[in-house]
UniProtKB/TrEMBL annotation:
Parts forming coiled coils: none
GO molecular function: ATP binding; phosphorelay response regulator activity; phosphorelay sensor kinase activity; protein kinase activator activity
Species annotation: Candidatus Magnetoglobus multicellularis str. Araruama
Name under which the protein is recorded: histidine kinase
Listed SMART domains: HisKA (SM00388)
The enzyme's E.C. designation: 2.7.13.3
Pfam families, sorted: HisKA (PF00512)
Residue ranges of domain Histidine kinase in the record: 10-147
Gene3D superfamilies: 1.10.287.130, Histidine kinase-like ATPase, C-terminal domain (3.30.565.10)
Length: 147
């Protein structure tokens, strides 16, 4: 039963990350509707929401596979890590902006291709950035910068 509890806690944690982004995007959409901003902006947010929902489905699928075979399917792909980080930060920067936190990026150049599961890497990035955001909000109320 203890193992099931740990698994449930992990599932809840992993599902909260995409759900948080979905919630944030919906809030931004609602704000844009009130201000009657351009339809293109809303379309961009809707695409972001759709992408996060797809990630959520992939996480649920991995949990389903784990519960059946006691192994987790890893979907490794050759990727350019900076592309993955840029894609992730495009979404997360909106959340930082809502908290009035400035993000300072310093990514390596000419990095080699890596063979990883992009969903898992994004989950790791989300955990790191959410913890960093929380630390900045708690400890740096005057100088809200994240590097």
């Amino acid at each position: 039963m203890f193992v099931l509890g740990e698994l449930s806690a992990g599932v809840v944690h992993e599902m909260n990350q995409p759900l948080s982004i979905i919630k944030m995007m919906i809030q931004l959409l609602l704000k844009n509707v009130k201000n009657k901003t351009e339809t293109l902006c809303m379309k961009d947010h809707l695409n972001d929401i759709n992408n996060q929902i797809n990630k959520l489905f992939q996480i649920v699928d991995q949990i389903r596979i784990f519960s059946r075979a006691n192994t987790v399917k890893v979907n490794k792909q050759l990727i350019i890590m900076n592309d993955l980080v840029h894609s992730f930060l495009r979404l997360f920067t909106k959340q930082l902006n809502a908290s009035q936190i400035e993000l300072i990026k310093n990514l390596g150049k000419d990095l080699p291709l890596v063979h990883v599961d992009p969903i898992r890497i994004e989950q790791v990035l989300m955990n790191i950035m959410a913890n960093a955001q929380n630390a900045v909000e708690t400890n740096h109320k005057d100088d809200k910068k994240l590097q």
